[in-house]
């Protein structure tokens, strides 16, 4: 286990995704794991913490989530950019070995039967709030964040450490094609 | 009129918000305008382009949108950070002169009765897709992007120009309190 894997207070979990990073969505059902990339992940509420995630009907991970009603949202970082892009452009529906091809390594946390992706900056364990019309009509899923963690080398005491951590820890912000931006410099207003 | 105010193809409008910037939400009804800041704005679909926005029940702008069924999502930039923070921490509900206090200037586009905030990097004109349960239970609003524009000094031909434009044009990514990050360097995968 990564010794820097540290619990984040639920009421501060929104800060892990508030700046709009590209994410990884992972889920498992009946022994089958998958991981996909998703940019359309967004805060929805503070207490209890909730978020939205858009999952296309073609996404294999969506099928797992519809069965398990659980998933993990990860915040990956710059050193994982190639992996994130691979996970966002290949589907397990037609590539059964997607995860091994993409160099994803998963780990598990006691009491949670969903896969966590190693090497990320943050993890939010969510339980689905099933809303069939949203899911069917808009591919829109709502999750309640039941627990969250971060790597303490990049997020500590409720604050990102982008200013002091290495460049490889910066979050990824996706535009289109093969084109990301890394998060940049801090700007504190007065 | 800003001579750099340039139409963006609807199918590329998602790129204006895909990287998760803090936004400004503006609306007008019956001659009353307002502008608020919102981080929880997220892509929902490509064609037709749709987005989600979370609007708290205490937000005055929400009342305007519920009446007009229309609104504008703006992508502000680093030179507007103080204004963005002011607009996100003051409500017209108890400060009638909020807009003049915050130095917001609005302009109008022919055929659209909603206010555009001057000096932003991008604008998405949306019509509300009313879904009462989402709005009531989750403060979650869905808009269809009917038209979009960008300042051609920072977004051109479907691409952000953060690499070459001045630092003052960088998008803002909000964490909490008075704490933003600017978007950073490009990262293109292979």
From TrEMBL, chains A, B:
Residues 15-157 form the Flavin reductase like domain. One of its GO terms (molecular function) is FMN binding. SUPFAM superfamilies: FMN-binding split barrel. Coiled coil: none annotated. Its cofactor is FMN. It holds the Pfam family Flavin_Reduct. Its EC number is 1.5.1.-. Keywords: Flavoprotein, Oxidoreductase, Plasmid. InterPro entries: Flavin_Rdtase-like_dom, Flavoredoxin, Split_barrel_FMN-bd. The keyword ATP-binding does not apply. Gene3D superfamilies: Electron Transport, Fmn-binding Protein, Chain A. This is Flavin reductase. It comes from Pantoea phytobeneficialis.
């Amino acid at each position: 286990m990564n010794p820097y894997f540290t619990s984040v207070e639920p009421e501060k979990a929104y800060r892990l995704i508030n700046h709009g990073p590209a994410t990884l969505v992972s889920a498992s059902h009946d022994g089958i794991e998958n991981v996909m990339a998703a940019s359309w992940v967004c805060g929805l509420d503070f207490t209890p913490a909730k978020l939205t995630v858009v999952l296309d009907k073609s996404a294999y991970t969506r099928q797992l989530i519809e069965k398990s009603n659980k998933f993990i949202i990860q915040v990956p970082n710059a050193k994982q950019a190639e992996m994130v892009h691979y996970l966002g452009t290949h589907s397990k529906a037609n590539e059964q070995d997607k995860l091994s091809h993409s160099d994803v390594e998963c780990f598990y946390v006691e009491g949670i039967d969903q896969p966590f992706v190693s090497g990320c900056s943050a993890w939010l364990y969510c339980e689905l709030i099933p809303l069939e019309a949203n899911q069917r009509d808009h591919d829109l899923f709502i999750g309640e964040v039941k627990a969250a963690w971060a790597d303490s080398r990049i997020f500590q005491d409720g604050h990102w450490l982008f200013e002091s951590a290495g460049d490889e820890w910066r979050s990824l912000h996706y535009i289109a094609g093969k084109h990301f931006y890394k998060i940049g410099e801090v700007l504190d207003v007065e």
